[in-house]
Amino acid sequence: MDLLLSATLGIGLSMDCLAVSSCYGLQAPNNKRLMIELGAYFGIFQMGMILGGSLLGGVVATMIYNYAKWISSVILFGISIKMFIEGIKGEEVCYETDRLRIIYLAFATSIDSLLAGFAFSIIRESIIFTSLIVGIVCFIITIAGFLAGGLLHRLIGRLSQFVGALILLFIAIKSLLSS
User: Fold this and answer.
1) Residue-wise pLDDT tens digits, 105-134
2) According to DSSP H, which parts of the chain are helical?
3) pTM of this prediction?
4) Structural domain boundaries in the chain
């Protein structure tokens, strides 16, 4: 697959990462270390899931396909509910040390990449170059989402916690409703 198609695939697969990273930008707009960490986790997970899907191949694809949207939806729904509760209680959430949450989100947002990897194994397409480009594109889009969330945080202040939770809830519902 050439560079343009790989980058286009990366953009498509990174849209959930864009939304999730904007939630983090809403919560911790000045935390540049967190921004880079999110970009790295999300990019590595996207890249790794495409490679993993390609290696596992079409056999596993049919087994996982029916459950993929449920897995990602449950994770995203749970995190959005937790964010709502934290917002209602007025708790300050420390996203810097909550790597487990970041890993859950990186996994949940990269399940589509796993399925894309399955597709590549079926059509016998080389995936190394494509997965690298997807990871880089996802890193860049995640950073952009974080920065956009930070800008929105400056505009809406404390409501940002609820906006972030609503975004994650929307992604979870969208995932459940997709075919």
Assistant:
1) 899 888 888 878 877 776 666 789 999 999
2) 3-13, 15-27, 32-89, 99-109, 111-122, 128-156, 160-177
3) 0.77
4) 3-70+94-157
